[in-house]
Write a structure and sequence with these properties.
The chain has 997 residues and is mostly beta strands. Helices cover 14% and strands 37% of the residues. Strands 59, 60, 61, 62, 63, 64, 65 and 67 form an eight-stranded mixed β-sheet that branches.
């Protein structure tokens, strides 16, 4: 807790210093517009820094919270529902460093407008208050020329006025809400105004660090000004709803003074015991007085006095219901009906206590407490594996492997990693670092080291050779030579712990925003960042160029904020909107290995985001009907970056698109041999594709200008139908958010059919690449799936085709698919199984068919583009593609990462399920118990296997079979001393495959 308080104190001192000295914190002075470069931000659905202020509307339906994390969040409260529903994130213009930090929020009584302010200059020399439309998230007004960062905002009960105070001795300003022009002000404050409140008649009361309480009438004329007896620095103020009493809390005293609402005369006082009051309020009926205990030391609680504040008291939370809240400062208090109280903490979190002091709602933080043990960040010799705690005091330890792309729970009693992990080196010959923990002045060989104003150190590490060391501080990661001369420093949002890899390549820092970062030891350049979600399941890795790797469901946790000018809300683009181009685990691995990736990458995220995505919306929505076909129409409007590919989905499955992967530099060379395509050849192939002087356009599609409108007929299914549309920018690098509509269809239900096409190729025209188990795998798979499918489908509704070896030419495969596409309906299911060679060429995945004669030719390969096209032709909304393919050159990090990227993009684009397993030719030939290993585990999962029924409903679904097969393949391959990790990629809706007998 003290660390959080220290963090907040640093910010406040930093702001006050800037305001009082007249300095504006821009490196090169103020500019005219907010920064245009994309700013990477974390988006967990919750604030990632303390909640500075909270506000509710008059009907207590909407809650708004503001934070130094530069966001304002709108939540919905529903009686009887134990959680707050997130509705919208309001994004003001932001910048690097302090720009955009929110210190004040208020929602209008009618819930329509949200005001916010803080370190909000947006390029101006003075500060701004932003007014957002709550429903749309649009920035609709900007109040300019505030003399300091706004620290309090409050709407009058009738909604006609907004009062604002700022840091600095600038008094208060009152604005008309009709046009947000200045109505009144009081400049005569010797220090900043700390809090404001209204009574129901519109009278205003304020507290100030100058020691005075001020009372204004509803015309904002000063009618009383008095010092409260309980302390010298009143910082909290609250009217009773009827205006009869005023509660005052102090920064320098545990007293709570209660004054007359008529003339500010002293009525009585209460005491919170120790520390100070970080928040005060009254219940809506005036029967209870609440005060939150603040200060430097816990425990922290909310004290409640009965009988209008004069009676006995109780505390919230009680020890058995605390959820750890006693360890955290409660900041803002806001009354709710039925004597409930809404509170915020600096974890960040917020919640509600009811009249009986029970915690009835609590919104947990969603950012991990990384590095709270300064010696708890352990790293392997090359820093590819780290171990640290995700909770306070180093609890809930995890191990993450960068090269293994794996997050595992750690046994706190022993080293759960196969590698030796090292804590930071704390002592070396001729280098002794002391007084470094939570210190403003760490000592280096008994000499003080100068830090920045208000800066404190939290962690330290010495290099293996003893020549340099690093400090983790509240503002930076700092690297020094042994003599104390600074080598480099990197600005960070509080570094809690640091370590240096034993090979001397990287500095690793655990930061307050929930990330771990890797910096080059030689110059401090960031190489890699990793974010853990508190669910201990989702993670994202990314590099400065924007390429990333992520666990399933994690791509929405990170994104880029794009300013659109000082009078418009910011635009947020998640990594999911950039998935097709920037999901590249192989490039992330190459960067971490220290390789030059400049010729591997086609475009950076910063370059791609210069062309923002368009906006998609439906213009014609089908009504409920019993028609088999309905018409939907949609409009795509440019967001400034043009319009590229448009994708239309029905129940999650792609049914229309006009984009495809472009073979950039040349056609596939006929002379390439399959055996030559090892990982280094693939790597070199990628380098050859990209021209340094031109940015690659990875998808090609028809030009659409700045406005594109289209209609499409859709085959409906009985019941719920969901149609979605998304569009890319003109470069096809960034896509819009998915726009979705739903409607019900009254068409008669049709019996579902199952169609299976299984293909296996052992024998090729070039016998030198023949396999052993591919044809048998295909035969065994189709036999097993047909048998098990009979538990769900009528025998007459199961249709299957097996084509192997000489019958599995490219022409044969595509012909069979075309035949099937004419029979398959939306209510059916289609499964396509392939066992063969697989290739990665020119950024595409290819299936090798029987036609292969030793030379790589389009005539013998089925490409990703062709797979996408025939998946659209096949009407089934449920489709599963299984690619059990081997790679001639073996499978290392390059191959496996690129396979993952290409398969994931393929599955996401089609809106379907893909199982993909890449192994070496030797492993494929060796096989396992008469089949390829991955097919063996599929067959086991299909063998009436209750072990695959993870939800215990007696049905095995696509997702369940995939996870079972993946885990079994990993386990068996480890026993065989080789690595094989299938990729189970689920972008379609789950569907049952069979029922347990």
């Amino acid at each position: 807790m003290r660390q959080w308080c220290h963090w907040v104190l640093i910010i406040v001192l930093f702001l006050l210093l800037s305001v009082f000295t007249g300095r504006v914190l821009y490196a090169d002075g103020p500019v005219n517009e907010p920064v245009k470069e994309p700013i990477l931000v974390i988006e967990t659905g919750m604030h990632t820094a303390p909640i500075a202020k909270i506000s509710v509307d008059a009907k207590y339906r909407y809650v708004v919270t503001g934070s130094p994390d530069k966001t304002v969040r709108v939540w919905e409260l529903r009686r009887g529902v134990p959680h707050a529903q997130p509705l919208r994130v309001l994004r003001p213009p932001i910048g690097e460093d302090q720009e955009g930090r929110i210190q004040a929020v208020a929602i209008s009584p009618d819930g329509n407008h949200v005001a916010c302010g803080g370190w909000t200059q947006a390029g101006d020399p003075l500060f701004n208050i932003y007014i957002f439309d709550r429903a749309s998230g649009s920035l609709i007004y900007r109040i300019r020329d505030m003399p300091g960062p706004p620290n309090n905002l409050k709407y009058s009960p009738d909604g006609k006025f907004l009062v604002a105070t700022t840091l600095g001795p600038h008094g208060i300003k009152i604005f008309r809400t009709g046009d947000y022009t200045l109505f009144a002000e009081d400049k005569y404050y010797e220090k900043l105004a700390s809090r404001v409140d209204f009574d129901k008649t519109g009278r205003l009361v304020t507290s100030s660090h100058d020691g005075f309480i001020r009372l204004y009438n509803n015309n904002f004329e000063l009618i009383e000004k008095k010092e409260a007896p309980g302390g010298n620095d009143p910082t909290q103020i609250a009217f009773t709803p009827d205006g009869s009493k005023v509660a005052v809390g102090f920064r320098d005293s545990p007293k709570i003074d209660v004054l007359s609402g008529k003339d500010l005369s002293h009525l009585f006082s209460q005491d919170i015991g120790a520390g100070n009051a970080s928040g005060v309020c009254w219940s809506l009926d005036g029967q209870y007085l609440y005060a939150a205990k603040g200060g430097k030391f816990g425990p922290f609680f909310i004290r409640k006095w009965e009988d209008g504040g004069r009676g006995g008291w109780s505390e919230m939370p009680s020890e058995e219901r605390s959820k750890g809240l006693k360890a955290w400062v409660q900041w803002s208090l806001t009354p709710l009906p039925d004597s409930r109280v809404l509170f915020t903490t600096n974890i960040p979190s917020f919640g509600i206590f009811n009249k009986d002091n029970r915690l009835t709602l609590y919104k947990d933080p969603e950012t991990a407490f990384l590095g709270r043990d300064p010696d708890g960040l352990l790293v392997s010799r090359d820093s590819s594996t780290i171990k640290l705690g995700l909770e306070r005091k180093g609890k809930s330890q995890v191990i993450f492997s960068v090269t293994g792309r794996q997050l595992d729970f750690a046994d706190p009693e022993k080293n759960s990693s196969p590698e030796q992990l090292f804590p930071p080196i704390s002592f070396a010959d001729r280098l002794n670092i002391t007084d470094w923990n939570k210190s403003h002045s760490p000592m280096i060989n008994r000499r003080p080291l100068q830090l920045g104003p208000g800066e404190s150190s939290f962690g330290r590490a010495i290099s293996p050779d003893g020549d340099t060391f690093v400090l983790a501080t509240s503002n930076n990661i700092r690297c020094y030579h042994r003599n104390g001369r600074r080598k480099w420093q990197v600005r960070v949002p509080i570094a809690r712990a640091v370590n240096i890899s034993r090979d001397g390549r990287y500095v690793i820092g655990a930061l307050n925003d929930g990330t771990v970062r890797w910096y080059r030891m030689q110059d401090g350049q960031e190489v890699l960042a990793l974010f853990f979600h508190v669910d201990k399941n989702r993670w994202v890795m990314w590099i400065p160029e924007g390429y990333f790797d992520a666990s399933p469901g994690a791509t929405g946790l990170i994104g880029y904020h794009l300013n659109q000018g000082k009078d418009k809300e910011g635009l947020f683009i998640t990594l999911n909107n950039m998935f097709d181009v920037f999901y590249r685990p192989d490039i992330v691995q190459a960067k971490f290995r220290g390789e030059d990736i400049s010729r591997l990458i086609s475009i950076t995220a910063q370059e791609a985001l210069k062309n923002p995505p368009p906006k998609a919306q439906f213009t014609v929505i089908p009504p409920e009907s019993d028609q088999k076909k309905v018409r939907v129409c949609y409009r795509i409007t440019t967001g400034g970056g043009g319009i590229g590919e448009v994708r239309l989905f029905h129940n999650g499955k792609l049914i229309k698109s006009d984009g495809y992967y472009r073979e950039v530099s040349r056609a596939i060379p006929e002379t390439r041999r399959i055996a030559s395509l090892n990982s280094r050849a693939i790597y070199d192939e990628q380098r050859d594709l990209f021209k340094l002087e031109d940015a690659l356009i990875p998808l090609a599609s028809a030009s659409k200008g700045d406005l594109f409108e289209e209609c499409q007929e859709i085959d409906t299914i009985s019941g719920d139908n969901e149609v979605s549309v998304t569009a890319f920018n003109k470069d096809n690098t960034v896509q819009s958010y998915l726009e979705t509509i739903s409607f019900r269809s009254g068409v008669s239900p049709e019996e579902p059919h199952l169609y299976i096409l299984a293909t296996g190729v052992d024998k090729y025209k070039d016998s030198g690449v023949n396999l052993r188990y591919a044809a048998k795998d295909a035969s065994d798979f189709y036999t097993r799936i047909v048998r098990q499918a009979a538990t769900l489908y009528k025998p007459s509704n199961i249709h299957y085709l097996l084509i192997t070896d000489g019958n599995a030419s490219k022409k044969d495969i595509l012909m069979k698919i075309n035949e099937l596409s004419r029979q398959i309906k939306p209510t059916d299911m289609f499964i396509f199984f392939v066992a063969s060679h697989g290739l990665l060429i020119q950024n595409q995945y290819f299936i090798v068919t029987h036609d292969f004669d030793g030379n790589i030719s389009p005539n013998s390969l089925v490409s990703s583009n062709e797979i996408v096209e025939f998946s659209k032709q096949i009407g089934a909304l449920n489709q599963l593609y299984i690619f059990d393919t081997c790679h001639a050159g073996g499978v290392d990090n390059i191959v496996s990462g690129l396979y993952d990227a290409r398969m994931s993009v393929l599955a996401k684009k089609m809106g379907l399920h893909i199982y993909a397993s890449a192994n070496s030719v030797q492993d494929a030939i060796d096989g396992y118990q008469g089949n390829g290993l991955f097919t063996y585990t599929l067959l086991e999962g299909l063998n009436n296997n209750a072990g695959a029924d993870t939800n215990h409903n007696r049905y095995i679904s696509i997702i369940e079979l995939g996870e079972y097969s993946k885990n079994s393949t990993i386990d068996i391959s480890k026993k065989l001393n080789h690595s094989q990790t299938p990729y189970i990629i689920n972008f379609g809706k789950d569907n049952e495959l069979y029922r347990l007998r």
